[in-house]
Each structure stands twice: as structure tokens, then as C-alpha cells.
Amino acid sequence: MQTAEEIKTMVKDQYSKIALQDKQTNESSCCGATACCTEVSSIMADDYKDLKGYNPEADLGLGCGLPTQFAKIKKGDVVIDLGSGAGNDCFIARAETGETGKVIGIDMTEAMINRARVNTEKLNYHNVEFRLGEIESMPVPSNAADVIVSNCVLNLVPDKRKAFQEIHRVLKPGGHFSISDIVISGKLPEKVMQTAELYAGCVSGGIPKDEYMNIIKELGFENITIQKEKRVTVPDDVLANYLSADEIQQYKDSGAGVFSITVYADKKKDECCDKTTCCQN
Questions:
Q1: pTM to 2 decimal places
Q2: Where do the structural domains in the chain lie, given as residue ranges?
Q3: CB neighbours (10 Å) of residue 245?
Q4: End-to-end Cα distance, the chain
Q5: pLDDT in the model for residue 23
Q6: How far apart are CA 154 and CA 71, in angstroms?
Q7: Confidence class of residue 72 from pLDDT cuts 50, 70 and 90?
């Protein structure tokens, strides 16, 4: 069993490699850093190209949804993107929030932050910034964001409850999130769950869907809605790297599955910041 720090180190290493590659290279592999199949990207990712603010240089083809499309971003909003990568979702959010808003991208990989900042300079955006930090301990004050988005990143975070606690802390009362992520239905084979390549490729880091949704509910969010859901079919040529033919068939017969979901939830408008002081709207 890997420790949280070992998982973080592995993910940082993988995504540091990805940050130095182009989208075509990333799309030809499961997690961008190692070649394994050509089908995963088209299965996992949704097409951003028709969304306002889309920038090809910032699209590494690593997502599993379109959270910004569902995020109900308004002009002037402060938007935070968790696991911002090269900046793709930030630039689309910026198109929604406009010149009067602000977009903050947070990523724990320095190479990704550097790439995103280069992209921002090319676009000459003055209200988009990128901060190096972890989702479980965001470099952002409490009650700072109107909207939080994230695309296929929280499943890579070892402590998902802590991540959602931080989301709750950082959102303004009445703020909301729209997060695309990977969840599991049934029990995936241990070999798949423990594979570093698939983990960084947004599959084995997922937790059971019910557990994921219960974390959000238990932390006091309301109006929890699954905005989009789709099954992710892992191709046989990927599974064959880790499972025998019999094990692959047993996996298929088990009914276990991987799903991409986009989840929306509100922080209550009258939410208190701590045990003694309530926030001002």
C-alpha cells in the first residue's frame, strides 16, 4: 500500500513529464508519460474546441469532462481551477467571468505552473494567475471563490475528504463547484487499482461513487447534482498489460466499472466560517 506522500510524488513525476510534452504525445498514451494505447484519450476526454476561450496550447488532452461548461460562471466571478495544468479550464473560465472577474489556477506540479504562466503571458491576460500548491491545503484564503472547477484531478488526491473540506473552506457562502472526476462502481481488480500508469491516467485513483457522493453530503453541501455521467471502457490492450486473459474476463463479468461524472453542489448561503463567526455575504 502506497503512502499519501508516495502517491503525490508519483503523480508529480508523471505530470512533470506530461507538462513538457505536446497534446499529440499525451493523447497517444494513457497518462501522457508512457505509451500504452491510442484509445484512452478519446474515451476519457470531452472536446473543448467549441467552447469560448479555448486555447490549443493549453489543452493537454487529460480531462474526463467539461466542468466549465456546467459551472454557471457569471461575469465578475472569482473562479478557482483545481489541478489547472497548462491552463485550459482557466482560460475558458476567464471567457465566462470576463475582465471584471478573476481566475486562479492551483497545481502541485511546478512544470505545469510554468507552462500555464507562459500561456497566460502569450494571451496577455491580467486577471488569470497560477499558484503552486496542493488541493488539500490551498494557497487561498477562506471564502475567496464564487465558483470552483476541476477536471479529472481529485481522483489523484489521496485524501478526498480533506480536498472537499478545503473546497468548502475556500468557497464563499452561496458559492458552488462543478467538478468532473472518476468514480468506481463495484470492485476493480487489485492489479488495476495499484498500477501507477493507470493511476496517473485517471482510472485507479477513483473511489466508489457512493462514497464520493457521501463525502460531499456529509460536509454540508446542498443541491448536490450529477450534471453528466458516462461509462469509461478501459480497452483490452491496456488491461492486457496487467491482467491475464482469464482475469480480464472475470473483470468484465464482475460488473465493476469506471465512470466519469460531473458533480455540482452549493455551499449554504448562511454557512459559518468557523464555530463562532459567520461569514458576511
A1: 0.82
A2: 4-264
A3: 10
A4: 44
A5: 52
A6: 17
A7: very high
User: Quick one: average pLDDT of 77-103?
Assistant: 96
Share above pLDDT 70 across residues of the chain, in percent, rounded to a whole number: 74
Q: Coil, strand, or helix at residue 12?
A: helix
Q: Mapping DSSP to helix (H, G, I), strand (E, B) and coil, where does residue 109 land?
A: coil
Phi, psi for residue 73 in degrees, rounded to 5 = -75, 135
C-alpha radius of gyration, the chain, whole number: 18
- 131/114 Cα distance (integer angstroms): 10
pLDDT tens readout for residues 159-169 = 999 999 999 99
Q: Is the pLDDT of residue 36 over 50?
A: no
Question: Which three cell numbers, joined as nine digits, stand for 75?
Answer: 461575469
d(CA 64, CA 70): 14
> What's the grid cell of residue 84?
489547472
**Which amino acid is located at 122 in the chain?**
K
Q: Beta 145-151 vs 128-132: how paired, if at all?
A: unpaired
Contacts of 130 (CB under 8 A, 6+ apart): 84, 87, 90, 104, 105, 106, 107, 113, 116, 117, 120
Q: How far is CA 246 from the centre of its chain?
A: 33
Residues 189, 13, 201, 24, Cα dihedral to 10°: -150
CA distance linking residue 168 with residue 179, whole number of Å: 13
What is the grid cell recorded at 180? 468532473
pLDDT value at position 45?
Answer: 60
pLDDT (average), residues 35-63: 64
Neighbours of 281 (CB within 10 A): 9
Residue 239, burial from CB neighbour count under 10 angstroms (0-12, 13-18, 19+): buried
CATH class of 4-264: alpha beta
CB distance 111 to 15 below 8 Å: yes
